[in-house]
Amino acid sequence: FVKFANIEEDTPSYHRRYDFFVSRFSAMCHSCDQDPEVQTEIRIAGIRGIQGVVRKTVNDELRATIWEPQHMDKIVPSLLFNMQKIEDIDSRTGPQSSPTGGVKEENPSVLAENCFRELLGRATYGNMNNAVRPVFAHLDHHKLWDPNEFAVSCFKIIMYSIQAQYSHHVIQEILGHLDVRKRDSPRVRAGIIQVLLEAVAIAAKGSIGPTVLEVFNTLLKHLRISVDLEMGDRRGSAGSATLSTSSKENDERIVQNAIIQTIGFFGSNLPDYQRSEIMMFIMSKVPVLGATSQSLDPGHLGDLGTRRIQIMLLRSLLMVTSGYKATTISNALPAPFLDPLLSPSLMEDSELRQLVLEILHNLIDRHDNRAKLRGIRIIPDVSDLKIKREKISRQDVSFMKKHGQQLYRHIYLGCKEEDNVQKNFELLFTSLALTTIELANEEVVIDLIRLAVALQDIAIINEDNLPMFNRCSVMALVAAYLNFLSQMIAAPAFCQHVSKVIETRSVEASYFLPETIFKDKCDLPKSLEKDETDLFFLTNKIAESLGGSGYSVERLSVPYVPQVTDEDRLSRRKSIVDTVSLQVDILPGNNTEDKVDNTEEITFEALKKAIDNNGLEEQEKEKRRLVIEKFQKAPFEEIAAQCETKANLLHDRLAQILELTIRPPPSPSGTMTITAGHAHYHSVPVYEMKFPDLCVY
Asked: Would you give the DSSP letter of residue 417?
């Protein structure tokens, strides 16, 4: 049969069918003869027979019956059954290499793999799915998703063997199978997701096709399902902590980590324009206060489930944003992305805040300076870091004018959280430093100094009753940042003031410096004295030192107060509305008595006026509704008659106006005819008038 299959025929034979051969050769591939040598020979013969059938039929488009499901369901499992017997799987996962000798050809597993590669290489757009679906059935039937080494090996072979433009078909099939098996055990789902990761890793080098958004949508949906199952198991085991339940939770964590890995790898291989869309897509799924219906609704999962979904999605977003380099910061942080990212809903605990800051670092740091700023410390000489920076662009200046207050506010509120740990303060320091490097012009520098002084006031005044560790950590953060900033802007007097305060602290209050407060064992003070001004950075001295360097320091006298957002009023968390309502900039030289108070006194008359206005609006709405309803429901004759009456009045008035302008023409050659009238469904009145020359009305 193999010799017959190798004969090239000039004309196809339409009456010849190979159903019998497919069945017989497939059965031979599963031979279980008691004699191992005979068994191997029969299996090899079966594989060669299948290879002959493929070669004889696969290239003839008029005889495409070999690709029908009833044949593929026999051929593909037969090949996979023999491929499974090979011991060294990893040695065959790359692109096909030529056989090194005749011995390997006698190995059923190698022969089956070569035949499988040949079959897939000949698959076209229309029959690709028929060749891939039996693979899923075989892996399901033989429970090969856990462990999934063979499954990964199979799909690597598939991805390397098919034509590159068909890669997205395979990815779609894996996603579809993941949906089918969504209620299976966590380890099976994790095995399928791992296979998807390997397929995506190969497809990302070529054409991924239209499946980009579908991949992320499906993965995020399964992330939601996994968290749902984890929380359900946790609720079911409340009060009875069993080993099996704990194991289930750990297995769900494996699924979640596999999903995040896949999202991150896929996202990091996309071009920037697609990556920005995926960032927006993932951010739209994060459940925050006031979020759109697109977000992954935590529903009945409660606060713990919501937090779990938020953490998982932010971890995915962190991986996607890694290595992203936008030309302008407004491209990296558009308002629809920045607003939910900096939402108070994502400040509920320490881990969430860390993830948000790390995502910001990925997007703000366009010159790879973050590694040089790792860890919070007093840097003796910033020039040793060899920081890369460029002159701030006009677009970045515009971004800071529009969104700078949001960034300052996030840092300010982040410092006031009681559950902050060392990593939080390190990330806050890096955020301030990166903002200085990438986005700071003279105006932003003044704002950042105001912010730093306000952070110092948090620790000194302590209106929020923060623990002593937090207060000292905030003081250390301010010291580290002002030391960095003073050297970056190269203002000698400012540097001198900062250095003097740091030297005083190192002698009298070392717990106000990061090198001391973040040690494992640090003796904390019992209280902070407000009158120890030598230990604090003073606004008047900073203003005096910067004024000598040419900075406009009037705004330094205005204490920084964070903006209040609508979400603050809706949030369940302790809002800053309790302590501050708005920010007022009072510049020296302006007489505050001349200021007009824009706040309107709330009186009975004011309320009555507001109610009356609302009443008028309601009347207008009702009037518009009646007009629309009339045109929708009234008889046509009635509407036509009413319109005709109004049109006739307008027509008569127009005629009067035109009659006043009629004058005799100076000569026949300078005449023109104007036709004026109105068109009804039954009549068209016409007027002809002579004009001496062209007129404009």
From this structure: -
Q: 673-676 and 687-690 as β-strands: parallel, antiparallel, unpaired?
A: antiparallel
Q: List, for residues 598-610, the tens digit of each pLDDT value.
A: 444 556 566 556 6
Pair 667, 631: CB distance under 8 Å:
no
| pLDDT tens-digit series, residues 334-392 | 999 999 999 988 888 899 999 999 999 999 999 999 999 988 999 999 999 999 999 99
384 and 454 Cβ atoms separated by less than 8 Å:
no
Q: Six-digit token pair at 453? A: 């002084």
* Cα→Cα distances 560→357, 486, 536, Å: 21, 19, 17
For 651, phi then psi, to 5°, come to -65, -45
Residue 69 CB neighbour total at 10 angstroms: 13
Paired with 688 in beta bridges are 675
- Specify whether the CB–CB gap between 228 and 301 falls below 8 A: yes
Q: How confident is the model at residue 396 (pLDDT cuts 50, 70, 90)?
A: very high
Per-domain residue ranges of the chain: 1-76, 123-233+252-289+301-324, 350-572
- 167-180 and 212-236 are packed helices; what angle lies between their axes, rounded to 10 degrees? 20
Q: Longest C-alpha distance within the chain, in Å?
A: 122
For the record, the structure tokens of 496 come out as: 């001198």
CB 245 within 8 A of CB 233: yes
Strand partners, 690: 673
